[in-house]
Write a structure and sequence with these properties.
The chain is of the alpha/beta class. The chain has helices spanning 4-17, 58-67, 90-95, 114-125, 176-187, 199-202, 217-224, 239-249, 263-277, 300-315, 326-338; strands at residues 22-31, 41-45, 50-52, 82-86, 103-110, 129-135, 141-146, 153-154, 158-163, 168-172, 191-195, 211-213, 230-234, 256-259, 287-288. The strands form three sheets. A six-stranded parallel beta sheet has the order 12-11-10-13-14-15, with helices on both faces. Strands 3-2-1-5-4 form a five-stranded antiparallel beta sheet. A hairpin with a 4-residue loop joins strand 2 and strand 3 (50-52). Helix 1 (4-17) packs across helix 4, helix 5 packs across helix 10 (300-315) and helix 7 (217-224) runs parallel beside helix 8. The protein starts with a helix and ends with a helix.
Length: 339
């Protein structure tokens, strides 16, 4: 299951290739509360079909009403990009379902050229990070490869967004927990790869849509070439598999690196990596363990929820409060029991 942005772009390309009239909509700015972050996209076809979203639904309904034949209107016009704003007044915010008086500004691209979209998708499929810039005065689109995922920006002249390949997750150890994490990751738009050289585990893997690799995990991490949109999670409980893979992962710019284990096992792992492999407390700061947030999870599905929540927080650059830390929470519980 790929990201919603890629789905919107692919659908836009397919509709344009088929000769359909298409409106590409991007969330440009938000004030107050907003259901969707800046950069979120949707595509609207002339007959009212929609993929993606920019709000909770009411703004989509208004765009359909204004720009399609579904309500007897003339349909999508052929015109230059336009900046439109919803929810300026309290009445409009209420009408369009914007909470707390929120305001939303959108960039409307009427009948975007198909060639730049095809070029963008080809680069994304190659694993490139691409900056897409739209000249709002002319509608012209330029694409530049980049290594920096710059923040979305827009002004009266130009909209700039950085798009990248779908987020990837490499799981080490094909046990029951990995299956639940893989399913949740796919629902969140991650492309998932599972690695386990142990045939008794990898041969019984049952989650569809996941690439299975039987090689040694450290070799797999090197071949996986983690980037800023990648995460690596060791779930095998076997130091012979996990440790070398984690060492390789820590040399890469993955946004999340973690390993399953209790507080004691996590501390033992850190000592091994420091004493036998030359790591330091500073170099291990990026290593999450115990992984997940504290929700009192016991079963594999509950632990998977905990792990996926921490991964998504890291992906979205959210700093979690200390009370969500498994180490801090369980240490606090131990102190309370001894009191």
């Amino acid at each position: 299951m790929e990201s919603i942005d890629l789905l919107v772009l692919r659908t836009t390309r397919d509709w344009l290739r088929a000769g359909e009239r298409v409106l590409l909509v991007t969330v440009a700015r938000t004030w107050g509360s907003s259901p969707r972050p800046v950069g979120s996209m949707m595509a609207l076809r002339n007959d009212g079909r929609v993929v993606g979203s920019v709000s909770g639904g009411c703004i989509e309904d208004d765009l359909i009403h204004r720009y399609t034949t579904a309500y007897g209107a003339a349909g999508l016009p052929q015109q230059l990009p336009e900046l439109v704003r919803y929810g300026v007044s309290a009445d409009e915010a209420h009408r369009f379902g914007l909470p707390c008086g929120g305001t939303l500004e959108l960039v409307l691209e009427f009948m975007p050229a198909v060639e730049p979209i095809e070029q963008l998708l080809a680069r994304l499929d190659e694993g490139q990070l691409v900056r897409r810039q739209v000249d709002l005065a002319s509608g012209e689109v330029s694409l530049q490869s980049t290594t920096t995922p710059d923040q979305f920006s827009v002004d009266e002249q130009q909209m700039s967004s950085t798009l990248g390949p779908g987020y990837r997750m490499l799981l080490i150890g094909a046990g029951a927990l990995a299956e639940y994490v893989a399913v949740m990751a796919q629902f969140n738009g991650f492309q998932v790869t599972i690695c386990d050289p142990r045939p008794q585990y990898i041969e019984d893997w049952s989650v569809p849509g996941v690439e299975r690799i039987r090689d040694m995990p450290d070799d797999v991490v090197r071949a996986f070439a983690p980037d800023v949109r990648s995460c690596i999670i060791a779930l095998s409980h076997d130091p012979k598999l996990d440790d070398l893979a984690l060492l390789e992962a820590l040399q890469r710019p993955a946004f999340y690196i973690g390993a399953i284990g209790s507080r004691r096992n996590s501390q033992s792992r850190r000592r091994r990596l420091i004493e036998h492999f030359g790591e330091t407390e500073q170099s291990l700061q990026r290593l999450h363990g115990p992984i997940g947030i504290y929700i009192g999870s016991k079963t594999p599905p509950e632990i998977a929820v905990s792990v996926m929540a921490e991964v998504l927080a890291a992906k979205n650059a959210v700093a979690l409060p200390g009370e969500f830390s498994i180490t801090q929470a369980k240490t606090r519980i131990d102190v309370q029991r001894c009191a």
